[in-house]
Amino acid sequence: MPSEVTVIDADGHILEPPDLWERYLEPKYRERAIRIVVGQDGYEYLEIDRKISRLCRRGQLATLGGMGKKVADAARMRERAMSGELSPEELRYQMPAPGDTYLAGAAFGTMDMKERVALLDREGMAKAVLYPTLGLLWEAESFDAEISTAYCRAYNRWIADFCRDSDGRLIPIAHLSLGDPAAAAAELERAVKDGCKGAFVAPFTITKVAHGDKAHDRVFAAAQDLDVPLAVHPTFEPTDFAVHHRFDNFRWAVWYYDLFAGQGVQHAFATFFQCGTFDRFPGLRMVVLESGAGWIGYFFDRADAIYSGTSLGGTVRLKEKPSHYFKERCFISADPDERTIAGMMRNVGENKFFWASDYPHPDHPGNYLEELRGMVAPMSETGRRGILGENVARAYKLM
Predict the structure, then answer these.
(1) Could you point out which of 85, 144, 224, 263 has its C-alpha 20 to 30 Å from the C-alpha of 371?
(2) pTM tops 0.85
(3) Which 8-state DSSP code applies to residue 129?
(4) Among 337, 356, 336, 359, which residue's Cα sits nearest to residue 68?
(5) What gap in Å lies between CA 134 and CA 140, rounded to an integer?
(6) CA-wise closest residue to 233 among 259, 268, 207
(7) Residue 286 pairs with which residues in a beta bridge?
(8) Alpha-carbon gap, residue 153 to 138, rounded angstroms
(9) Residue 103 confidence (pLDDT)
(10) End-to-end Cα, the chain, rounded Å
(11) pLDDT for residue 232
């Protein structure tokens, strides 16, 4: 990237220390801490509230920091799958070896603040906005609002500490669970005072109450008063909530499910329009993360058409068309390999888009800087500067 352009990764990840929750949870909750345990078969498993995770597949923890490591292995697996040599079980688990560990699989800069700053320097970036890894897994299996809030509070205290001495290069974002809105609002206020620059929520709620519903107004009021954005980020979703578990005999098809992983985020985001949240909170800023950005043009073409031209629009509790609120107060993150964004900027707005690496997660390619150059090449100078860093800096008030 040109040296005079500010480059900010809008959605990078860390790998939490395995003992984070044992150290940062309040004493009354510590026996219920999230842990990594080793089973009799030699594989690591995620333990959530004293139970082994059902959604985190065997051996998966060892792969979470493996961006770019398995491309050659995937080609060999594809050949074996096409020949019928691999069973559905082998395809599902991708067969990590017993003894492969979460710590051994951690990429450079994922568990050490100084390493992460060094990575930014190496890649010519000014800052990185940071999100969790284990924190994207546990909430789908924790339906106790009290312990979920405690897990979030422990993570938020840790990530603030992790970023604190980075000279503003690493940006901590708080994790909120909407199971108890009052507790979530209080935790947002505490976390922002501790240094967090915003918060994210999962694409589902454990209460099954829509994200934009008035039941969550205390959270929206807190975000508005604190002047920080609220984001929706993909996580594991409970099986009976998830939008991408249509086929019971297709669970080995991890490529297929990852392809549609962002749909939960889209569904959550749409509730803020249906429920009229943006009129109730005219200062609320929203960020849409890790679900691609190419869909947003269709989304608002369709949303505005239904709102203005059909009787269905009467159910939308907004004074203006949905696109009006997006252009005023929302932002969306694009993957570096998307090639439609330059054209979309003309209609959606050059100041609406971020880019994000997803580093070090293995479901995104490791050549993100190369892909990013291709994505921004056809953009105008203002569009290029915006998506590379100025838009995220403005959204989170980083400069």
Answers:
(1) 263
(2) yes
(3) E
(4) 359
(5) 11
(6) 268
(7) 230, 330
(8) 14
(9) 96
(10) 20
(11) 98
What sign results for the dihedral spanned by CA atoms 26, 27, 28, 32?
Answer: positive
User: Are 318 and 270 contacting, i.e. CB atoms less than 8 angstroms apart?
Assistant: no
Q: At residue 228, what is the residue type?
A: V
Tell me what the mean pLDDT of segment 183-188 comes to: 98
Q: How far apart are CA 4 and CA 85, in angstroms?
A: 52
Q: Could you give the CA distance from residue 89 to residue 156 in angstroms, rounded to a whole number?
A: 36
Q: What is the pLDDT of residue 252?
A: 64
The DSSP code sequence of 137-160 is: TGGGG---HHHHHHHHHHHHHHHH
- In 3D space, the residue among 297, 295, 228 whose CA is nearest the CA of residue 261 turns out to be 295
Q: Please report, for residues 224, 244, 271, 287, 328, the alpha-carbon distance to residue 276 in angstroms, rounded to integers and kept in the order given.
A: 15, 26, 8, 17, 15
Question: Is pLDDT above 70 for 87?
Answer: no
Question: How many other CB atoms are found less than 10 A from the CB of residue 261?
Answer: 20
- Segment (H or E) for 171: strand 170-172
Please state, in angstroms and rounded to a whole number, the distance separating the CA atoms of residues 150 and 87. 40
The three-class DSSP label of residue 366 is coil
Distance CA 199, CA 18 (A): 22
Distances (CA, A) of 21 to 49, 135, 145, 147, 153: 11, 11, 16, 11, 10
Question: Which pLDDT tens digit goes with each residue over 90-139?
Answer: 555 455 788 899 999 999 999 999 999 999 999 999 999 999 999 999 99
Contact 13, 110 (CB under 8 A): yes
Q: Is 285 left (phi over 0), alpha (psi -120 to 50) or beta?
A: beta
Range of weakest confidence among 90-99, 277-286, 293-302: 90-99
